[in-house]
Amino acid sequence: MDRAVLEVDRICVSLGGREILRDVSLDVQSGEIFGIVGGSGSGKSVLLRTILGLTPRASGNIRVLGTGIDSGEEQWRHTQRRMGVLFQQGGLFSSLSVKENIQVPMRELCSLPVGLMDAMTDTKLSMVGLGASDASKAPSELSGGMVKRAALARALALDPQIVFLDEPTSGLDPIASGAFDDLILTLRNSLGFAVFMITHDVESLRTVCDRAALLAHGRVVAIDTVPALASSRVEEVQSYFHRRSKFSPATRSIH
Asked: What's the pTM?
């Protein structure tokens, strides 16, 4: 973890005349799992959408893998090939099979032979713990945990250098959440990508994140390792960690 794959420098975002983010700065290093936490309305989702170029910012700079998000359509498209995104509810297209969903970024961002896409799809399914028989299923035929795994397979379709995860364990029970945390760690350790993860789950934060930032009222209140944040004397940080933990470590350790 010796170079930044994501640099956010003093960004400000306003929506509907209301300031949502103010002077937010952070960085994510190569191979690092970086968490973003905060209460409802703190600006977590807006921050992610701004980084992905989906929400305009009033000021500040953002660089992903060394490329500014304002560098131009062609250059940004090239950078997108090295990024993966898992949306909060999975974001699978209901009209497409699991296989077709995984191949969406392959078709949109690359020009690959069908046989190669099929082989890549099989590999990604195996990596996330799904079988070849799941490829032909519709998203409606999958459990909540399987939807997350299929969405993660799509995020990994083009072997990204950084993966953005929006509430990856949202809607999962404690056992499924713990298993998904383990999967993220295993894949990061074996493939070496960096992770930028929004989460509400304190146990997930403690399990997988190397560092984290706490947002409150649109600002970064603290950035540090998770153990350091958990023992912080900053009022907003103490309040978050003491009130948001839903599952005991014993409960989350059962897979």
From this structure: 0.90
SS3 4: strand
CA–CA distance, 96 with 154 (Å, rounded to integer)? 13
d(CA 80, CA 67): 10
| Residue 246 near residue 172, CB atoms below 8 Å | no
Which amino acid would we find at residue 168?
A: P
Residue 248 has pLDDT above 80, yes or no: no
Alpha helices in 110-234 (DSSP H): 114-127, 144-155, 174-191, 202-208, 226-230
pLDDT per position as a tens digit, 180-208:
999 999 999 999 999 999 998 888 888 99
Q: How far apart are CA 195 and CA 30, in angstroms?
A: 9
Burial tier of 138 (Cβ tally within 10 Å: 0-12, 13-18, 19+): middle
Closest CA to 54 of 87, 10, 7: 87
100 vs 114: CA distance, rounded Å: 11
